[in-house]
Write a sequence for this structure.
């Protein structure tokens, strides 16, 4: 038997032993088998990696969408909480009734609702002084297409003073700083109510005050005691007004305005030929000039009053010298010059209209709180 095999090569050298030829054929088959065995795992690996990458991309996209959704819902919940807080304060401002400690109210708004609770954190010794509250609003955002479960919740809070319904009417003219009076000019200080109510005292001042002529009321006048004894009966928190915690409608008087707005003038004020209505607050001295001054409502003065106009008429109530409450020592009111005719008539109707805007919640400046912790 021949031990060689023809390989198809024309040269004699192409003849090789059978064992060598068979060995080469065997290696070729093993290479083919090895190649087929490697291709399948590689394909599976590529498919697996591709699937994982696509899955990660979808998960990332879904996470980004959920994050954006959550951020939008959080902003929505914040808006709901703030709306609920503002509506709660507006409701009690309109009804002029002080809420009880722990008072709660659910306020429905577009896209959700707000649960508002008012907690009293400071009770004054005098019931006429402001009561301090923290008003908390928990806003809940609801998406109807996603069921009844809340999509986001946000809680905000605001410290606010509840200013009582007006203040105590001690007299038609109450002067913590007293008056300096001379009889050359005409003065009428009348505590008899022009609105058919009960009469009050005409003039009230400390023992250091002169007694102005032309007073009437029940009683006509009293000059006794010290300014703190008179101030406690008024119940006016002047420090709140001086520090800017009271939000007035205007910072300057609008002549001829009949809307009974609130005015807060910083420092000294000088008015000439002015007619107006409402609550006028001057943190310094008030000088009046011209031919005629008329005011319907309440006038609160931190310093002294100098009515230099030919005729000054106040229908309502006048209080002066309130800066004693903040550590200052204002001079006496000057009612001692000729041709300075002053007429003060107590009027409960104009006084009530002037103080309507003064009653209710007054937010404390700089105390709005976001993400209020709930326990």
């Amino acid at each position: 038997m021949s031990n060689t095999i023809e390989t198809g090569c024309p040269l004699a050298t192409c003849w090789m032993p059978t064992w060598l030829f068979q060995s080469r054929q065997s290696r070729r088959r093993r290479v083919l088998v090895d190649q087929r065995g490697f291709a399948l795992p590689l394909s599976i690996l590529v498919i697996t990696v591709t699937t994982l990458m696509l899955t990660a991309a979808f998960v990332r996209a879904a996470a980004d969408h959920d994050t954006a959704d959550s951020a939008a819902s959080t902003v929505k919940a914040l808006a709901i909480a703030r709306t609920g807080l503002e509506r709660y304060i507006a409701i009690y401002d309109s009804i002029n009734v002080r809420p009880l400690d722990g008072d709660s109210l659910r306020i429905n708004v577009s896209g959700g609702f707000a649960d508002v609770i008012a907690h009293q954190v400071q009770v004054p010794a005098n019931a006429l002084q402001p009561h301090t509250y923290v008003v908390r609003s928990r806003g809940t955002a609801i998406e109807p297409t996603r069921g009844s479960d809340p999509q986001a919740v946000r809680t905000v809070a605001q410290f606010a003073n509840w200013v009582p319904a007006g203040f105590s009417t001690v007299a038609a003219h109450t002067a913590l700083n007293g008056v300096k009076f001379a009889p050359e000019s005409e003065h009428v200080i009348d505590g008899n109510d022009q609105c058919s109510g009960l009469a009050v005292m005409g003039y009230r001042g400390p023992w250091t005050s002169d007694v102005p002529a032309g007073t009437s009321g029940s009683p006509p006048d009293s000059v006794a005691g010290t300014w703190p004894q008179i101030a406690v009966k008024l119940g006016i928190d002047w420090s709140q007004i001086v520090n800017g915690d009271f939000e007035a409608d205007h910072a300057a008087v609008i002549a001829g305005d009949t809307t009974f707005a609130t005015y807060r003038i910083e420092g000294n004020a000088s008015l000439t030929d002015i007619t107006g209505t409402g609550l006028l607050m001057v943190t310094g001295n008030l000088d009046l000039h011209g031919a005629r001054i008329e005011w319907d409502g309440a006038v609160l003065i931190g310093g002294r009053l100098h009515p230099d106009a030919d005729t000054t008429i106040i229908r309502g109530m006048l209080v002066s010298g309130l800066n004693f409450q903040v550590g200052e020592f204002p001079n006496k009111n000057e009612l001692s010059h000729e041709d300075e005719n002053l007429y003060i008539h107590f009027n409960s109707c104009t006084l009530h209209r002037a103080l309507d805007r003064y009653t209710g919640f007054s937010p404390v400046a700089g105390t709005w709180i976001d993400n209020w912790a709930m326990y």
